[in-house]
Amino acid sequence: MNLLELQGVHTHIGAYHILHGVDLVVPQGQVTMLLGRNGAGKSTTLRTIMGLWHASKGRVALAGQDITAAATPQIAALGVAYVPENMGIFADLTVKENMLLAARAAKRAEQMDAARLQWIFKMFPAVEKFWNHPAGKLSGGQKQMLAVARAIVEPRQLLIVDEPSKGLAPAIIDNMIDAFAELKAQGVTILLVEQNLNFAKRLGDTVAVMDNGCVVHAGSMADFAADTALQQSLLGLAI
């Protein structure tokens, strides 16, 4: 079963026609990798799914429900979390305050789900270590961990992350891969935009490759990982 489906999605931003009929499926309970050269339309696809930009044509469906024209808060309320490429961290707030803002069911830190927080701390120790520190003082890798931790502070059915490995040290990438694998094991469906092919190979179940605002290849990540000629033709030397 597919949790998320895009059918013939076009997106215009002002005078610019960015997406040209995107067809994409994200199977439930799996990790789907969205790959492509810079400017292929990957981030625009994520923003269109989240309702930050609205499709000018086509359909976006979540668990069979049409969300094409839904507002971003409505989509989030359906259990969809989004981590943008810039992470969206509130630098002047503490790590705790960043987490509390995302925990909509809690008004104070004490009301956050303690068991869930402990689970998050186990995956992302830096979140616990710097709990009372300003988020702006964290390293790039720690901010990325906070951004993902914040997205999952409440249970989500779909987690969408734009370039989670960007700028991260190899040890931090390993930690991030373990965290996404743990989330998948908990039943979370994950859609990731990535430039790091090794990261994608290690984590992805399925893959879709974009070029010029369209999906030009979709299938098994294992098959794609084994086909270097296909990788070269679709991704060039960008990865």
Automatic annotation (TrEMBL):
It comes from Pseudorhodoferax soli. PANTHER family: ABC TRANSPORTER ATP-BINDING PROTEIN, HIGH-AFFINITY BRANCHED-CHAIN AMINO ACID TRANSPORT ATP-BINDING PROTEIN LIVF. GO terms for molecular function: ATP binding; ATP hydrolysis activity; branched-chain amino acid transmembrane transporter activity. Belongs to the ABC transporter superfamily. CDD domains: ABC_TM1139_LivF_branched. Pfam families: ABC_tran. GO terms for biological process: L-amino acid transport. This is Amino acid/amide ABC transporter ATP-binding protein 2 (HAAT family). Residues 4-237 form the ABC transporter domain. Keywords: Amino-acid transport, ATP-binding, Cell membrane, Membrane, Nucleotide-binding, Transport. It comes from the Bacteria. InterPro entries: AAA+_ATPase, ABC_transporter-like_ATP-bd, ABC_transporter-like_CS, BCAA_Transport_ATP-bd_LivF, P-loop_NTPase.
